[in-house]
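In this section we turn from sequence analysis to structure. A common task in structural bioinformatics is to predict how a protein folds when a small molecule is present, because the ligand can shape the pocket around it. The inputs are simple: the amino acid sequence and a SMILES string for the ligand, here zinc ion. Study the lines below before reading on.
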Amino acid sequence: MADVLYRKYRSKSFAELVGQETTVAVLKEAIKQNKIAHAYLFSGPRGTGKTSAARIFSKAINCEKFTELGDVCNECMYCKAINNVQTQDVLEIDAASNRKVDDIRELKNNIDYLPTLLKKRIIIIDEAHMLTNEAFNALLKTLEEPPEHIVFIFATTESHKMPITILSRVQRFDFKLGTKTTIINKLANIAKQENFEVEEAALELVYKKSGGSYRDSESLLGKILNSTSDNKVTLEEVQNLLGMVSDSELVQILELLIDGKVEEFISLISSQVDSGLDLSYLVEQLLEKCRDMLLQTFTTDKVRYMKVMKVVNALIKAKRDGKEFTDKQLVLEIYLSELGLGDVPPTRPPESSSSKPVAPEPQPVKAQDLPKPIEEKKLETPVSTSSMVASGDFNQASFEDTVFDIHGRVGGFISGCRTSYSDNNLTILVDGVWKQKQLIEHTVTLKEALTRMGLTPNDILIVVDDAVSVQQVPQETVAAVVAQVESAPVEVGSLDDNSALVEEFI
Ligand SMILES: [Zn+2]
């Protein structure tokens, strides 16, 4: 049922084929100038309109009114014949089920016939990469000396599986996934025509779930419209339908995590997982909520800020490793369980069973080897904090709290980083060069924290661990920073000014 909507609103003209403007412009120009190639390759992810484009192009080549309209008319006898699949002159072959050499031989015999109705015969080969090598070889001879009346259109999601001999004989077009705006606009348009009122946030969710595929997003919208009892669709309804938690439940779940009530969290989600909760999406949802909370608490509530930061770190690790394990729930629970442990240092991530190549060990950078950081203003007398420990023992949680007390932003940087202390040396594993650079600038703060904990630090090593490298800065932040940096009167080469700007936004 869900595909009905997709078929109903399938693009029938170039104007309706949204998001592929460059391809459309080049194809139109080719027809205008009567420079139609013998073979085309439409390559791109599933659901981006390749087959629709192939049909539109077939009509455009033959349409009576194309020159006049600059698009297909869908009314002339040729357009109609193609739309209603009433002509053998346009042949659609699914290579997934007709992949053998015999199928291609049959096609080749067929090719010699002149078109009966149209100007040219168009052979559309869908999922072309599925053809066998023998079938490709059989086709190759035809492509080398193509008959005048034939146009081949290969459509594929995996162009890298196509033989180079074929690729070199086709004109290639790459189809792109839909952007948030193009997909949401198209869905809103369909919903309107179907007399449904759908909340924009619900459409945004459909976009996110379909990963930019027009077909998948339209199928999902069809499923949603079919399942509602009235003509209004809310975000909450869509979340329920997709086995996701609602916004209010999300806040509840996050509060449990922030408070370290991991057991309650696990028992809450276990029952929901059984009834189809999408865990990967839950992690995404939680991260988005965390980002809002970080922005709210950064200047107002540092304790909460730190707690949310810990949740973020655990979720990011779970998201990263969840991809490699079948039991995503287990991975999530392992990482989140750290939140309930308070002072125990985090565990190493579970070892992957696959024998993947290991990235080369990054070289540790000694803080003392680098140019001396700008001296920070030292506090005359240590401020008494609840997190301070009496003497001599290193523990990560106290260290993070103490650093946070001295310098909030540095506290944010080290939160969730793996830290160890032995033989008076502190080692911090960070997830990126940028963070490493920031921390090196603040070794004074780190030493100060250790001293306050009753330790006598000698060396501080800040090591980039590629295994934990995760992009934690939201795209919007990066864009905002870039815009600021570009417009700000910053001297050329003044890296420090730029990084200060980045810091301001975090
Ligand atoms: Zn026409």
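The radius of gyration is 30 Å. As an exercise, try to locate the residues that line the zinc ion site and compare them with your own expectations.
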